[in-house]
Amino acid sequence: MRAIYRTTIPASLIVFASALLPTAARAQVDLSGTYSQTAGPDNTTDPFIGDYTGLPINDSDRLRADSWTAEKWDQEQHECDPHPADYGVRAPGGLRIWPDLDPLTYAVLAWHIEIFTNGRARTVYMDLRPHPSDYSAQTWNGFSTGKWQGDKLEVTTTHLKEGWLRRNGLARSNKAALTEYYIRHGDFLTIVTIVKDPVYLTEPLIRTEHWFLNPGYTLAPFLCTPRDVVDKPPSWVPHHLPGTNDFLKEFPSNFGIPVEATRGGAESMYPEYMQKLATLPPPPPPPPAKAAAQKQP
Asked: CA neighbours within 13 Å on the CB side: how many for 85?
């Protein structure tokens, strides 16, 4: 009887201890796998010049985007720029996630997240290490740490190089912080990104992207060799002077959206903006040549 008593107590303690485990520890999910994208506005086509609709940008970012030109990517120093961590999940390409495991406990020490257009895999440290000093180097992927919130992986990223909110000139500063949530439901993965930028955003920018597990998919390597492709001096800076970018007129005219609505701002994010939208003047018509082309079958 005494022997039975001695063996029963440890078993009871194990059951009791497991019930006291933090919810996050019991709710962790395996994110590893190779994923393909579902169709999104930035991974199926390039965003339109001047389309800032529904983005909480300020006047400084609006001016930068108005002055921007895609000729920037013709500069040798920018030809091979990868997408920064906050934009990579919106850009075309596949996704692969895998863990680093402790060889004894099999606890996840870090997650690695590779996206084709990022150039190299991100590392998300799960060992509670602190973020580096504000004076540490900034990179395209930044410095990321993670923790579980129930069955959601929360990732905090700092030390990002200056990047972009969209591929139409809307900038994101190097003072921005990124928070992400990785949420897996069976074969589907949702990634929520929240960008807070004190320089260019008046409110947090929250977006979601959706992926599906594709075990037979293999990411292509990100191969790029910069070279001089334009006959311009090294000091050339592609730009539009204020008020000279005629491409800004095309998006509102071609889609019949009031010009003011395409200029973005936090107000345009909310459903109540529909009431104001109904009172705004219509955009100017497209140029005659384009209008005639649009009518052709």
From this structure: 30
R_g of the chain computed on alpha carbons: 24
Report DSSP letters for the chain, one per residue.
-HHHHHHHHHHHHHHHHHHTS-HHHHH-----EEEEEPP-TTTSSPPPTT--TT--B-HHHHHHHHH--GGGGGSTTTTTPPPPHHHHTTSSS-EEEEEEE-TTT--EEEEEEEEGGGSS-EEEE-S-PPP--TTSPPBSS-EEEEEEETTEEEEEEE-BPSEESSTTS-EE-TT-EEEEEEEEETTEEEEEEEEE-TTTBSS-EEEEEEEEE-TT--PPP--------S---TT------TT--GGGGHHHHHHT--HHHHT--GGGGSTTHHHHHTTSPPPPPPPHHHHHHHH--
pLDDT, tens only, 55-106: 999 999 999 999 999 998 888 888 888 899 999 988 888 899 999 999 999 9
Phi, psi (rounded to 5 degrees) for 266: -60, -35
pLDDT of the residue at 27: 67
Is residue 204 a contact partner of residue 194, using CB atoms and an 8 Å limit?
yes
Per cent of the chain over pLDDT 90 is 65
pLDDT reading at 23 higher than 60: no
The more confidently predicted of residues 259 and 295 is: 259
